[in-house]
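Notebook p. 47: complex prediction with flavin-adenine dinucleotide.
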Amino acid sequence: MTQVVIVGAGPAGATLALILVQRGIAVKLVEASRTFGRVFRGEGLMPSGLDALKQMGLSSLLERIPHRALDAWEFTVENRFLFRVDEPIESGGQPCTLVSQPALLQALIDEASVYANFEFVQGNTVQDLLWSDRRVVGVKLGDGRELAATLVIGADGRNSTVRQRANLSLEQQSHNFDILWFKLADSPKFESENVFYSILQDRHAFGLFQSSEGNLQIGWALHEDDSSDWKQVNWPEMLASNSPPWLAEHIRTHADTIERPVLLSVVVGRCPSWWTSGLLLLGDAAHPMSPIRAQGINMAFRDVIVAANNLVPLLREGVGDAAIDVVLPKIQAERSPEIIRVQQLQSQEAAQAELLGKSALLRWGASQLAPLVRQPIRQSWLHRQRQLRQGVTPIKLTV
Ligand SMILES: Cc1cc2nc3c(=O)[nH]c(=O)nc-3n(C[C@H](O)[C@H](O)[C@H](O)COP(=O)(O)OP(=O)(O)OC[C@H]3O[C@@H](n4cnc5c(N)ncnc54)[C@H](O)[C@@H]3O)c2cc1C
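Predicted complex, structure tokens below:
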């Protein structure tokens, strides 16, 4: 019988598992973490990702888990309001929505668990691949068990073990920042509207929003040339002194609620080949995405749709290994143009922020001339967002 083993129950692995089991294909899904809540997981979904979930028939599932639409994006430079864009940006379109990823992943697993052809192997790590005649034929787990597979899907994220064990190289793009992630007490300011604030102050850049969990979250860009040891920094004071007055007051009042930051390493790049005989990489395992403008989950869902379109008919028919291997490069070819373009757009966004961050003169100019430059800067930002929100290539689930 055809057996698919998926490694990693992140957005890519969990949605692909559900689509396949719903269509009668036997799936074993292996996930290293014991619970979804422990690790930090991004939660911004763009219209392209929301549309992908709708195509998968998962819009009602989304309604059942914690989520909140964004009302606006607002940009501040040197304590001066620069510009604001209300959501949804496209008239009649969908707003960017924050969705609790732990709840989403658990709901996907619960949905898949209804099917007898689904097995969830949780709290177990894939440590190696099984090979036969240069074809991947399964995985080896941390507890020594071996799972045989007609096809292995590596959906195990940016530091993918599957990718490394398959000797598939990753071409990393240069990026010069990691993210420090903070959680702090909610503010009444977010009751009436949830604004994503991007704040640039004295070359420090950070984003702030109310998460679907109801607390405030801050992502602070930690540049590689920052000389200070972030573990020694008095973060409540550092955050407050770089914030507009309303936020500084909130941070100082609730300093005791600020948890120790989590360092999230950013990896950005693409594999020249996403596949080898018997194995396909999807999501961040194939193309780790920058956190800029919340793209990675959306891209992972869209990878899954293309993979399902190509694989389901073959897996259902129980065709031979060679026929499966033939479609693996087709899946990469269909997805690559969008991934390349979106990564380009993300690096353009990063370059803009870096330019402003490095030049005190530019920051001063932008803040002093804000009333004059507001409209052109806003228009230019809006122009850059279209593909980051809608995707680049048309994607339609056909199976
Ligand atoms: C700071 C930060 C913020 C982000 N915010 C957003 C956002 O708001 N919106 C957005 O769209 N994207 C965001 N991203 C990007 C996004 O998180 C990723 O692109 C997305 O999660 C990729 O999904 P995935 O399923 O491919 O991989 P992952 O989400 O990384 O999931 C991989 C899964 O595999 C499991 N795993 C790993 N190794 C093994 C193993 N050997 N055996 C078994 N299981 C294993 C992991 O535990 C994990 O559950 C952010 C990224 C960062 C760094």
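Notes: The longest strand covers residues 177-184. The two ends are 20 Å apart (CA to CA).
Next step: compare against the earlier run before touching the bench.
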